[in-house]
Amino acid sequence: MQTKILLPEDRIPKQWYNIIPDMPGPLAPVIHPGTMQPVSPDDLLPIFPMALIEQEVSQQRWIDIPEPVREIYKLWRPAPLFRAHRLEKALGTACKIYYKYEGGSPAGSHKPNTAIPQAYYNKIAGTKRIASETGAGQWGSSIALACQMFGLECTVYMVKVSFQQKPYRKSMMQLWGANVIPSPSNHTNAGRSILADHPDSNGSLGIAISEAVEDAATREDTRYALGSVLNHVCLHQTIIGIEAKEQLALVGDYPDVVIGCHGGGSNFAGIGFPFAADKAAGKNVRILAIEPTSCPTLTKGVYAFDYGDTAKMAPVAKMYTLGHDYMPPGIHAGGLRYHGASPLVSQLVHAGIVEAKAVPQLACFEAAVLFARCEGIIPAPESSHAIRGAIDEALQAKEEGKEKTILFNLSGHGHVDMVAYDDYFAGKLDDFEYPAEAIKESLANLPKVSF
After folding, report:
1. pLDDT of 440 strictly over 70
2. Is the pLDDT of residue 216 over 90?
3. Is the dihedral of CA 50, 63, 228, 349 positive or negative?
C-alpha cells in the first residue's frame, strides 16, 4: 500500500488558481476606512506593490508563478501527500485518509507559499523594508525568511500572548534577520492607544495588524505584508490543492470531503479552493472549514462589513466577523485567533458551497496526540483542528457503515510549539467557548457601510 505520493520537482505548478472568476456572484467592494467609499488602487499603493493590488482584483482564472518564486519553491515543493494508514487502523475505519503535508518548508508551515511571492513582488517594486504582524508565529517566521531571501529588512509585530507562549518562533524570525516586537507596543500610535486603556493587554491579531499597517503607511521605503485573509494570499496558497489533486490522480482517487483549519483563511483556501472549482463544475465534494470554539468566526460571527484591524486603519471588507474589538482568550493555545475571515471564504460559506464547524481545544490536542502517535509527525496546534475534523468525519462514516475518501491539510509541524503540548499534558489547557454576550458587544461596533 502506497504511503507517500510524490511529484518530481519539474511538476511544481506553473500557475496559481484564482477563484474570483468562479465565485457565486460579484464580490462586495472593499471600503476605504476613512472615506467609507470603495478603495482605488491608488489608495492601496502606500501599503502594497501594484503587482499584488492587481492580483487582489484580477479576473484571470490562472496566474503565472514567476520563475524566481518557483526556484525558491524547489526547496520544499512539491510537498508530499501521505496516506494515513496507521491512523485509519487506529480508528478502525474503512475510510481512506490522506493529508497534504506543508511542514517541510524552511519555516515549517504553508505560509512561505505566499511570503516568497510577496517578498519578490515588493523587491522588484523597489521596496526596502516590510512591516508585518504575526499571531502564533508561522507567518512572522515565513515573511522573515522571505525577506532574507530577497534582501529586504523586516519588522514583525507579534501578538504579545504568542510572543510569551512561543519564544522559539521569535528566535526563528530573529535568525532570519527580522526585528520582532511584542504587540501592543510603544512603537506606534495604535499600540500606545491600546496600552493606555489596557496596559496588561495580551494583544490580538487585529491590534498587531494596526501597528504593522501604521508602520508601513508612515514610511516611504516600507510596504505591508499580510499572511492570510486577502485575495492574493489565498491565490498563492492554491498551489497546495493543485498539487494534491494531481497526486490523488496518480493513485486513482478523489476526495469525498476536503478539510482545512480556519483562522483567517489562507491555509483553508489553499487546500479548498481548487476543489471548490470542481464543486462548481458539478463534482460531488464537500469542503469543510474547522475553527476553534474560542474564536468561532464562521460559525457564530455575522456576515457584514468590518474593519480588518482594531485601530480601523486597514480597509473595510465584507466577511464573517466577531467584530474588530474581539479579544481572544489568553488560555487558547491552538492559534487561529483572527476576528474576521477571508472575504472569499466568507462568500463561499454564505453561499453554502463551503461548510464550517467549530471544535473545542482539548479535542483538537487529543486528535493531534493520536495523529503523532500513529503517523509520527508532530502537528502544529493550528493543524490539529483539521485533524480533528478528519477524525470526526471518519468516525461518523464508521457509525453509518460508509466508506469515504478524506483529504486534509496538515499545514505545519509543531516542533516549536511544544509549550502548548506541555500545557496539554499537564492539564493546564481548558475548553473555552467565546461568550455570546461578548460577541454581541463587539458586533455593536461594526462600521456603517451602505454598499
Report:
1. yes
2. yes
3. positive
Residue 332 has pLDDT above 90, yes or no: no
Sorting pLDDT into bands at 50, 70 and 90, what band is 334?
Answer: low
The packing angle between helices 266-280 and 239-250, to 10°, is 60
Which among 342, 434, 407, 403 is positioned nearest to 101, based on CA atoms?
407
Task: Indicate which CATH number applies to the domain containing 191.
Answer: 3.40.50.1100
138 vs 106: CA distance, rounded Å: 11
Read off the pLDDT of residues 347-378 as tens digits, 9 standing for 90 and up.
999 999 999 999 999 999 999 999 999 999 99
Residue 327 has pLDDT above 90, yes or no: no
Query: Residue 180 sits in which domain range?
Result: 112-226
- What band does 329 get if pLDDT is binned at 50, 70 and 90? low
pTM: 0.95
Tell me the CA distances in angstroms from 325 to 132, 306, 411, one per residue in order.
20, 10, 28
Half-sphere exposure of 406 (CA within 13 A, CB side): 30
Tell me: do 209 and 353 sit in the same domain: no
Q: Are residues 439 and 374 in the same domain?
A: yes
H/E stretch holding 153 reads strand 153-159
What's the CA gap between 101 and 409, in Å, rounded?
7
- Rounded Cα distance, 307 and 317, in Å: 7
CA distance 285 to 280: 10
Please answer whether residues 20 and 344 qualify as being in contact, where contact means their C-beta atoms are separated by less than 8 angstroms: yes
| Residues 6 or more apart in contact with residue 363 via CB below 8 angstroms | 388, 431
pLDDT tens column, 15-41 = 999 999 999 999 999 999 989 999 998
Q: Which of 45-49, 145-149, 328-332, 446-450 has the lowest mean pLDDT?
A: 328-332
CB 67 within 8 A of CB 236: no
Cα atoms found within 13 Å of the Cα of residue 230, Cβ hemisphere only: 23
Could you tell me if 183 and 249 lie in one domain? Answer: no
21, part of any domain: no
Q: For the CA atoms of the chain, what is the radius of gyration?
A: 20
Residues 262, 208 share a domain: no
The count of domains in the chain is 2
Which residues pair with residue 133 across a beta bridge? 157
Each residue's pLDDT tens digit, 54-82: 999 999 999 999 999 999 999 999 999 99
Other beta carbons less than 10 A from residue 435's beta carbon? 10
User: What is the distance between the alpha carbons of residues 96 and 404, in angstroms, rounded to a whole number?
Assistant: 6
